[in-house]
Amino acid sequence: MASDLATLAEQSGTKFILALFVDLRGKPCAKLVPVEAVDLLATDGVGFAGYAVGAMGQEPKDPDLMAIPDPESFTPIPFVKDGLALVHCDPHVNGQPWPYAPRVILKSLIQRCSDAGFEPWVGAEVEYFLLSRNADGGIAVADTADTAAQPCYDARGVTRMYDHLTAVSTAMNQLGWSNYANDHEDGNGQFEQNFEFADALTTADRVITLRYLLSMIAAERGMIATFMPKPFGDKTGSGLHFHLSLTSGGTPVFPAEEDSRGLGLSDTAYGFIGGILEHACALQAVVAPTVNSYKRTGAVSTSSGASWAPRLPTYGGNDRTHYIRVPDSDRIEMRGGDGSANPYLAIAAALGAGIDGIKRSTDPGAVGQGVSTRTLPPTLLHAIEDFETDPLVTGVLDTAGPGVAEYFARVKREEFFAYHSSVSAWELDQYLTAF
């Protein structure tokens, strides 16, 4: 492994390596390692005080997290800084993979898929806003001319952000990700830049890498790239939609020549859909894991006229109002997740629910409907309550070791009540002189 990483660094002209992983919240954590220490990095990893990292299931007294690099994820990023590269790592403690590490959790779910006879493939749509700070500390759309009521796909909005969008596109193509489209999304200042699907782990790594690249490239131009689900109350929120498919021995298993429901899907695909829909309310705690997430899924409308966020756990064909959209017979699109989602956990949870649905031949219900008439959780607290009572979804987080789901629920409940205890501008407007 040492020679592999060293060779990659030498071939790419790398001078420094960001040894990176994320915590349960998705915060990117890294140490900057000089190439002269690449062999030590590859064999021993690099140490972190786990409690200082954030939500990683550790206390100050606990032993170090050792981030062990995965050479397959080595990514030169000279367009950020000359000679810089990034490598995704799997945190270990005392020589064992740390069960609270999101990448470790996803790898365990990929193994579960393999045990069931499947290889999971994932595409991701990363939506984000480009913003600036006002003199008073507030936020505004970075492009001051981006004021249209329906700005989606506006050629002028894309052109005004040409330098930023093309820099990101060029970076993705240099990395071999095959960027195939860059567009202005439905909110003012909102964009999406697409890359081709890959195996589940590679796509999750790329989502984290892309968030980092977008943040750094935007900052070079004095902008803030945010993946916050809903930074503006009257604008469309940012989703993180996942396109999911399975193969078996390299052969796609979702398409079917005969399908009485009319979507061109196999019984395996319908079982997969049924599993996700059955657990959708609990899944929301993982794929929409912040207080702000529920300002997006709870939105009735926006200035553009639509929220583009599902409110019911339903499925349908090429229809973006459903929790699961089926754009073609090769894949399904899961639309409940948002920009705050940790891609490792979100993909793992979706795969866990889907594989369980296949094993139990879960019926997703009629096309245009679903297995439940319940609405999705209205707040993060409701989502956590659904999560805690769903042994399948909690079991996904515990797949690499016990206690992770309980810890995750506690962290998120504390997050909700920290928000709930703060006094908002809305409360002052409503109550200050009302009585």
Question: Could you characterize what this model shows?
Answer:
- The chain is 36% helix and 21% strand.
- By secondary structure, the chain is an alpha+beta fold.
- It folds into 2 domains: 5-99, Ubiquitin-like (UB roll) (Roll), CATH 3.10.20; 108-421, Glutamine synthetase/guanido kinase, catalytic domain (Creatine Kinase, Chain A, domain 2).
- A hairpin with a 2-residue loop joins strand 14 (240-248) and strand 15.
- The longest helix has 21 residues, at 200-220.
- The termini are far apart.
- The relative contact order is 0.12.
- Pfam families: Gln-synt_C.
- Its cofactor is Mg(2+).
- Residues 102-435 form the GS catalytic domain.
- InterPro entries: Gln_synt_N (IPR008147), Gln_synt_N_sf (IPR036651), Gln_synth/guanido_kin_cat_dom (IPR014746), Gln_synth_cat_dom (IPR008146), Gln_synth_gly_rich_site (IPR027303), Glutamine_synthetase_typeIII (IPR017536).
**Which fold name is given in CATH as the topology of the largest domain?**
Creatine Kinase, Chain A, domain 2
CATH superfamily of the largest domain: Glutamine synthetase/guanido kinase, catalytic domain
- The stretches of 5 or more residues where confidence is low (pLDDT under 50) are none
Rounded to an integer in angstroms, the radius of gyration calculated over CA atoms is 22 Å
Residue share in β-strands: 15-25%
- The helix fraction, in percent, is 25-40%
Number of strands: 18
Query: Which CATH architecture of the largest domain?
Result: 2-Layer Sandwich
Compute the separation of the termini in Å: 69 Å
Average of per-residue pLDDT values: 96
Task: Please give the largest β-sheet.
Answer: 11 strands, mixed
Count up the helices: 15
Shape from CA axes?
globular
Count of domains: 2
Sheet/helix structural class: alpha+beta
Q: Which CATH class of the largest domain applies here?
A: Alpha Beta
